[in-house]
Amino acid sequence: MPTEQDNYLFDLRGFLVMESAVSAGMLQRLNDAIDKIPPLEPGEWYGNVMRQRHPENRGKNIQNVHELGGVFEELLDHPAWFDHAGAYLGKSDGISVTEYFVNIRGQGGAINIHSGGHMHLTRTQYAYQNGKFHCGEINILLALTDIGPGDGATVVVPGSHKSNFEHPVFKAGYRNLMKDSSDGVLAAEEVYLKAGDAGLFVDSLCHGAVARKNPGERRVIIIRYCPKWSRNYHGFVPSEEMLARLTPERRVLVKPQNELRRPDSGIRTQDSGQSY
Ligand SMILES: O=C(O)CCC(=O)C(=O)O
Ligand SMILES: [Fe+2]
Questions:
Q1: Does residue 160 line the site of ligand 1, with CB under 6 A?
Q2: Domain boundaries, the chain
Q3: pTM, entire model
Q4: Which of 18, 38, 236, 251: disulfide with 198, CB 3.0–4.6 Å?
Q5: Distance CA 209, CA 151 (A)
Q6: Is 154 in the pocket of ligand 1 (CB under 6 A)?
């Protein structure tokens, strides 16, 4: 469970860094598993995994890697962050995984600075009330390569999850790409991670990633956790094969509810037995 210090820092800054969140062995297995994925064009599927179509500067997003099973499944409820995510979402109503992907970004790749508390989006909200957190989305960004200066680090504006004003950079027309570094982006900070470290942040935090200057690639895994009533962000539906092999605890993360249909629909469904 998160410590008092974790809670203090998360409330203050909107993000935490978890050093050595995964072991060296797991890191190796993750990188090996990614190396086995064939090159994919935007929109192309490999089994139940798909390369997302999105702006090229953001790099390659390989969506739904938990469908590949093995080490990717182990991350769904990894102990380094799972209790933290649950605590910050206020998990009494259950939680779900709304996106799970590998992001690979080469030289020049970047992501525009976005989000912020001023938007007051339900999906991304930061809230603490009656002694409990009630966040709308907690992101885990697990570094699979070292991410230091020049490597295209994630940029955060600490505390901006509670901001009442949009970051001035939005108005200055500096929204589309983070250029060489976060220098000049008011109150922004680059988050340097070693391979195996994880960043955890509430999605209302104003954030982005600076352009990668160094050769080679930056590899991360991003898992987004939301309250159980949320849907997959893109509409991906978990495959029957994956549902059949997942543990009950993991199955409920990717399919938080059973469908309930009339008995004469011909489709067998089951009442969860839950009441409110
Ligand atoms: O690629 C990054 O460093 C930032 C990713 C991001 O914006 C997100 O996970 O919401
Ligand atoms: Fe983001």
A1: no
A2: 4-265
A3: 0.95
A4: 18
A5: 10
A6: yes
